[in-house]
## 1
Amino acid sequence: MSAINRQFRLAARPVGLPKRSDFNLVEDPVPVPGDGEFVVRNAYISLDPAMRGWMNEGKSYVPPVGLGEVMRAYAAGEVVASKHEKFPIGSHVAGVFGVQEYALSNGKGAHLADAKLAPLPVYLSALGMTGMTAYFGLLDVGAAQAGDSVVVSAAAGAVGSLVGQIAKIKGCRVVGIAGGADKCRMLLDDYGFDAAIDYKHDDVKDALKKHCPQGINVYFDNVGGDILDAALSQLALHARVVICGAISQYNSTSGVKGPANYLALLVCRARMQGMVVFDYASRYGEAARDLGIWLAQGKLKSREDIVEGFDTFPETLLKLFRGENMGKLILKV
Amino acid sequence: MSAINRQFRLAARPVGLPKRSDFNLVEDPVPVPGDGEFVVRNAYISLDPAMRGWMNEGKSYVPPVGLGEVMRAYAAGEVVASKHEKFPIGSHVAGVFGVQEYALSNGKGAHLADAKLAPLPVYLSALGMTGMTAYFGLLDVGAAQAGDSVVVSAAAGAVGSLVGQIAKIKGCRVVGIAGGADKCRMLLDDYGFDAAIDYKHDDVKDALKKHCPQGINVYFDNVGGDILDAALSQLALHARVVICGAISQYNSTSGVKGPANYLALLVCRARMQGMVVFDYASRYGEAARDLGIWLAQGKLKSREDIVEGFDTFPETLLKLFRGENMGKLILKV
């Protein structure tokens, strides 16, 4: 075990897009576990749009990362030192381990990852928080039913690609919105979506009208902004709008753009509801079972976009906000 | 029976606030009922913010009023000619009878009003669509429970004043938002609200923080705009936002202002849901029974702001948009 633990610590609260100078890359001693603790060597670090929100000051669904603290992140790796019965040396584990090479954990929020069932990165993707978010957001908050027209934004992204595939498995008609011809082709060819809308090329509102002539029953939103407004303009009666994220707004320095078409909720007696995956912690097993079966059956594809190099963290993170990732963005340590 | 039926017909689609020239005051012969029809002489005409939306072109929850058609309105009056068994001459009746002195009806959507139980205007207010909207919006869409902090905007208006009173009856803590000291005094003294916020004088966001320190469980919105945004900033976990109307936006000529704080829905796992009272038609009896009992017990006050003079319709309607009415605005024919 190296005696050095490299960590990205938050140095400043970003204004707009995060930049390298918003972090300090520091070297800390590798921690030593006390009783009931273990140390994991991170192999893969999950990069998520939500991380941008965690860098901001102010009340949210989790406390912000403090200045000087290790940047919060999901990660997966191998236990290299342990005084915790459930997590022996050599076991694989996933949890909120931060943007660092080694993490000390008491096991809270951590779970074992069976590397024989699926490669470790999948435990940050379809079998991790990403999969849980897609599963409960679509089926619980969105209450998607067979026959529904489901539209998802950031559809080639980590959550979006799973939402669309789960909706297909459940018998819905699925339309994905993504940026660029390559992503749209992937939605149709790899994920089996019924239609794809390239927001960089198509008029999203017109395309939604064309692809959802009876209106949208479930709109799963990851982006906010103009695309949310376009979807609102095409809701069906009693539609459900799932607010999972708003990546188009996270780096705005001029405030969030509210959905001007929100009165469609009244016209369509529709609901717009926010979700945070932690609320479903007691039901993760249920989702993991279904997702695992679908993966094993080949009905669900988990695609990871893995970038090597721990040092590249600040720049790699930006791929999310530039829409450069295909599937789940993961940093390989 | 006068041989002349005066009617306000929509002459032009208003831009911004409606004006007299957007209507034609025409004289038509009083209609004669055929089999299964009756004629009502309107005594009271309900003036509602929703009427502004009905004047606009485009898809909504009801078709727009066509140019040249009698302006749509709820009204109550007396049957003066009838070939309809259920609605004999002399009976009192309420329904969508339009801004005119006499209306022909086949009974669809009309219901008898027992003038012995309540004065006729109350059938346009607490016992009419106004009461149904408040009842189902608060209890069904808002799912208000005893102990909840309920906030309502346009709280001195027709729907708002009922929402607050019903919430009090149900054991909620009620905060009303209204414009001006007189209205706020009325909320506290006449309707028994726990707190009143004068949006023309107070900082609404600060006041909500003060009056709802644990957050807002149910926000019943009649206004949209900045007040909706202020309420979103103070939601409690799992809050319900009922979108009943958006009077601050109806006459906007620069587009609707979307709620910039809508991501509070995510942070608070809250839902925002639109409602249209027609959806509850099969349950009107349930609401009318409760509302009638509360009125009889003196627990609920139905306040009508009655303006005399059929001819004043275009100008009287504007009282709604200027916030000049106290309680339900009604035009006496």
## 2
Amino acid sequence: MKAIAPGATLGILGGGQLGRMIASAAARLGLKVHVFNDTPASPAFALADVTTCAPFTDEAALTAFAGSVDIATYEFENVPREAAALVAGLVPLRPGVGALATTQDRLAEKRFVADLGITTAPFRPVDDAAGLDAALAAIGMPAILKTRRFGYDGKGQAAIRSADDAPTALAAMKGAPAILEGFVDFACELSVVAARSADGSFAAYDICENTHEDHILALTRVPAAVSAETAQRAREIAHAIADALDYVGVFAVELFLTRDASGAEALVVNEIAPRVHNSGHWTDHGAQTSQFEQHVRAVCGWPLGPAGRHGVVEMRNLIGDAVRDWQAHLADPAAYLTLYGKDETRPGRKMGHVTFLRGKG
Amino acid sequence: MKAIAPGATLGILGGGQLGRMIASAAARLGLKVHVFNDTPASPAFALADVTTCAPFTDEAALTAFAGSVDIATYEFENVPREAAALVAGLVPLRPGVGALATTQDRLAEKRFVADLGITTAPFRPVDDAAGLDAALAAIGMPAILKTRRFGYDGKGQAAIRSADDAPTALAAMKGAPAILEGFVDFACELSVVAARSADGSFAAYDICENTHEDHILALTRVPAAVSAETAQRAREIAHAIADALDYVGVFAVELFLTRDASGAEALVVNEIAPRVHNSGHWTDHGAQTSQFEQHVRAVCGWPLGPAGRHGVVEMRNLIGDAVRDWQAHLADPAAYLTLYGKDETRPGRKMGHVTFLRGKG
């Protein structure tokens, strides 16, 4: 791959708020940005030098996009693998198609993690009613049936608490290949946001403690209230996953923390996100290098920045009407407000976030 | 003026790196941005939602620009006053035309400052050879002859060390109205970067100590090595100037610090910049609120953010070929790199800056 220098063009597949914040960081480092997305109202378009609005199945548009950029990345894991592969055949794509292939399919992802000797929830593939019966017999209840692909923020999921729930849950999959996952009785949800370079260097931010509401991330606190050993183990898990994927860029590993009767902590990997991550938004004001700049550095083959934290952090998503509180946040000297420029406020829609930074910790 | 909320469009007259960084801050707060500038290769265009490339004398283009924005500002003080006045007649322009009128003319600016009882260098208007002789007789030598308008980074200036220099200096003014300023034997150059809201609230950053090379800012250190009394006096000067201008937005006051034989410090106002300022670039990573966000907050009628400083700051401009050191800066964990996306590197051209943030102080 040729060396990337300021003035080069970074291509971004996907145009949501993650792409918007990557574009902003890229511009700060003197890069030009070309955003490819399939909807006109894409938050990232406003910060791009060049935009392409076309379906991810439009091979001519993807080819032209790849021809116009020096390096490419993606900002969401549901970029169709065929689109990513087409681009990767024409220009370096970081992270690569392999990371997408592994993380787009919950079954492949779970198998990949389990093969590394890292704990996941118990899981079984489910393709039909017979398969679901067998999976329920093996895993027990409660359990969660999920589509293998295209799920996010709780979409494509159905809980099975008793045998009566099974047919409805299976119907909710709409015939898509599914996976049954055992229910994890967790004490809290954590994430590790980290970056890996092509040369194998690795930098993790401090562990995040996450609270979800209606399956959507509501709140991230850093540092997480876990033991130093657990924090270290979480970083090691992220490092092992990144190395095994030969990953380049920023990614997140979502984890469950469990505590047994004696209070001993254990970690269970829930998901890998091959991209900058909502639980890492606090790094924009709260860390020495934001996850967005870190991603750009890694993708361009530049040195990773330091991942130190400036203080005790609380990041709240502004979901739906919560964005109406923007003025109160602007008036709060501890608050750093970021809005995504979305014209339409809808329930459940991420409109922005606010990071509260207090003291040192 | 109607209340401005996220989703509104901020218009920026001027499209250089200052406009680029204002646009970036505005986008983060959910604003749309329309940049008006007269050259296609404008760094701010890349971060704007809408761009207009037209001369500042194009009344139709200015009228269309004003009609498309909810609030307007400018990013350089040499926006033609007629263009600013046209826009201000159609949409709120902050800061206003008055601040431009005062600061575009060195003579008007000096008189304005002197009328506030604030010390400036001695000055006299110079329109011709006879006027220059009279001014030199009054002020003495060395002195500096400057065009009253359109000077920046040392352009339009000529030093007069002996009577022999006078004709050459006058010729360098090319017939433009000029001002003779007495030479100030300064110990160091300082600046105050501050913001004032429409409601009169005021927030100043810590005093900056500036080093120029070839008349261009090379280095800013914060805090400046001055007494607490001098720092307080500098803030008071900036506050008095802002109040007298009924100023809205971020501005800078450039000052000379003099020390007499006993070491007593005094301040002499050199210039007022009615815009975000190069010596305030460190606030982007080194202060609680960047000067760019602060300017947007003030212009939109939103509360000012806190102006606290994160550590001991050194900001270096990357001028001309110095931008080639970008990789070394990326590898320095104390360095925050910002590049302006300019395609062509030229001697004396500001290509970016790097802020070094160390410890606390």
## 3
Amino acid sequence: MKKSIAIDMDGVLADVEDQILDWYKEETGLVMSRDDMKGRPEEELFPDRAVLRKILNKPGFFRTLPVMEGAKEAVAKLMEEYEVYVVSAAMEFPLSLFEKREWLSEHFPAISWKNIVFCGDKSIIDTDYLIDDHCKNLDFCKGKPLMFTAFHNVNMDHHERISHWNEVSDLLKRLEGVEV
Amino acid sequence: MKKSIAIDMDGVLADVEDQILDWYKEETGLVMSRDDMKGRPEEELFPDRAVLRKILNKPGFFRTLPVMEGAKEAVAKLMEEYEVYVVSAAMEFPLSLFEKREWLSEHFPAISWKNIVFCGDKSIIDTDYLIDDHCKNLDFCKGKPLMFTAFHNVNMDHHERISHWNEVSDLLKRLEGVEV
């Protein structure tokens, strides 16, 4: 049986950072750059949570996110050797459910609906690996956690790190003791 | 830590049988009763899968389902002792995603978005118990499967059976060796 990998959407398959900054500027007039975000937790960066929630609840936000660089190629390669699941904590934003499903159909059509999971808490998801950017998910997952670099986790070092999708294949080989 | 229970929606929390029969009649003119359905697999009952898919994709189908008798009271009681998750294979019908989320907010407002999972294949869900009506889920679940009676499973006997929500509390006590 193939080993299984759960892959997060926002910040991992979908590149959210520029879109959040652009929509935040439109909403508040405040200009921030990717560099301003680095190493700062979401709570500090967006102290007014209501504004952030308003943005994330706007129609189109999730549907129009760009695909993370290298994700399509890497996922296609992973699917040859692993059972790949997309696991997104979409439940907090009900409007995102349909948009995320449509987004996946457009950008990752090879991933079956059987392998898509929209949830809240990810702690009941049991796969061999979890690729995610949030420690709230990685710290409690049942498999091996792999931390995908995002602005809020650059100063954390308690998980294996993935800085770009082109590193994933070699990292998994190394973790499984296969010579790279 | 509380033990965890995953509970299916269609046929378990939501009573789908009458609604399918009513909408099927409206679509095809064919009249069937609950008794006609008993013991027959879905594939035999609805040989034209396209009609069934059409019904399940119609706006409002999932949003207007009645709550299964006794489910509200039983779930409220379970939540006192267990971590209760709702786990629905909603991904096959993308339009159902928002409707199912709304339905849960209306009928089970105490269940947090953190404890709701919409998926395809349930085999990566790891909870101590799974209450479901489909063997395709029960046969491969990681915890203890509990089969909720539905027309298509009345002749199966390889799992513990729940015929009504008012049996659940005593069944769980028995399984855990607590005197009822």
## 4
Amino acid sequence: MLYLPLQEVRDCLLRVLLSRGCPQNHAETVAFEMARNSLEGVYTHGVNRFSRLIRNIDEGIVRMGVEPVPVHTFGAIASMDGQMGLGVVNAKIAMAHALSLAKTHGMGMVALRNTNHWMRAATYGYQACEVGMAAICFTNTIPNMPAWGALDARLGNNPLVLAIPSPSGDVVLDMAASQFSYGALEKARMEGRQMSVDAGYDANGDLTRDPDAVLQTQRILPMGYWKGAGLSILLDLFAGCFSLGNTTLGISRLSGEEHGLSQVFIALDYRKIAPEAQSDAILRETLAYVQGSTVAPRASEVRWPGSRLAETRERNLQNGIPVDERVWASILALQK
Amino acid sequence: MLYLPLQEVRDCLLRVLLSRGCPQNHAETVAFEMARNSLEGVYTHGVNRFSRLIRNIDEGIVRMGVEPVPVHTFGAIASMDGQMGLGVVNAKIAMAHALSLAKTHGMGMVALRNTNHWMRAATYGYQACEVGMAAICFTNTIPNMPAWGALDARLGNNPLVLAIPSPSGDVVLDMAASQFSYGALEKARMEGRQMSVDAGYDANGDLTRDPDAVLQTQRILPMGYWKGAGLSILLDLFAGCFSLGNTTLGISRLSGEEHGLSQVFIALDYRKIAPEAQSDAILRETLAYVQGSTVAPRASEVRWPGSRLAETRERNLQNGIPVDERVWASILALQK
């Protein structure tokens, strides 16, 4: 394992993107966010996914130099077409537009179609928190999870983000509709570990914690069984119907790659109706109450969304970002 | 088991409410919705919960003759104070206000504080669908679920609703943040059944499907383990911070009953940016795709939110609403 300084990682990703004809401002956004994801421990959507992004650029699936264009607008809501551009750039621009609508109307929504993988869902929640707003965001994806009672995958594990700013560290929930991501299953298989709870079905149709068995059947378990399946359907219908873009069905008709996605960004300028001093006091005492829970006998700690982020970030800033040698070598090889 | 015609159930609930000094229009709303809940198979939040509501009215916890009053408004967002009135009436009025804001601005949000149990969460999703809008609604509740890794219950199993209208039957997800409700556990214990999947922890700290063991420890399992716990925290922070009302912490300081709640109603008039013909076509083909999934070998059917509703409703309209004799006797005894 290599331990690389944040700046070195960022600079390298930036150079590779620029070598593909990516405009400077877009390249900076993507390099910044993907390096930050690894810095904050979300390795699957950071450096580890960078080579795949470049492959998608080289294949023409992700287009360079385009930005979302407005389609329809009515008051606080708008739809935009992402023109199959860089997912991170598109999503940041769509969220910025939702934030700007919220500044005027108290809340705003942008439904974005024809976009690509936004990497880490939480990114757009933090973007809202930075300007003191709350957010609800979600994306759809390729069919990778069965409906409840189904054998074949016709749902996406569509991630949902809920975010609210907090002076002691923003509270950002970033939750896929499956119990585990395919990335987490692959990591556990490589390390020869079982998952901590049931992750999906084996070839006999039994629930199992064995990542290899689930990767073979591709029957990953929805979070909360039927509940995650239901959540996935609603998020997909919202994203597709609001943006008039692809639902998971439409995405499945494309290349088989994760592109042509639809996403929704809702920004809530709630401090316009809930003065900061009062709402922050409620937030602070509520978080302190939860964090003061008695730790269960067999648990090591009480967890809440973001509870481990500051520690990981600090450690990786100090010691460098852990990057697999082969992953780094393949990224270095992309600089040409 | 009795099988009672819808009209008889409604009329009886109405009479009892009127006998408590409930205004005619409020009594009609509550009687209509609670009878409908039983009609559509949501027995726990229909007739079965009616005596408890009347007890709360008699105790003065639920106040008669009040309606939500506006607190703060900015553009498309507003907060209201429910004055500890009837939860169903308050929630319907708050949702109606969110729908009216959405008509003007494309979307609207009402954050409601000092309200009471809204019974069935889906009610307010259907309310939006009736006027062609989508909705996101949630409520908080008393502490009844531990945080992830915690022994003591400091979270609520706060239900979340996502709803979108559909000509073939609105698609409404109504999902508590726990894997099962306490009502479902109590029903299974009465019937001597185990739950279909793990429902919580037993006295040894082991996950169990035994409803009795979970009811004894009161350690119910969050949906998706850490995920449902995280979702609960965010919904509670949103509801409390937006309305400047109680979070689960504040509710815990009250009587121990489920009152003084905070709720959020978001209405989305998405057809203003996504013409009905186009968005409905996307919805129809996406639902048909999911419903066309191959049924897994050991499953009896593929399920999605609302997939069983029409059948239950039809059966109960035909045969009458099933009501336990003792439950009905206790409601009849309330007519005085």
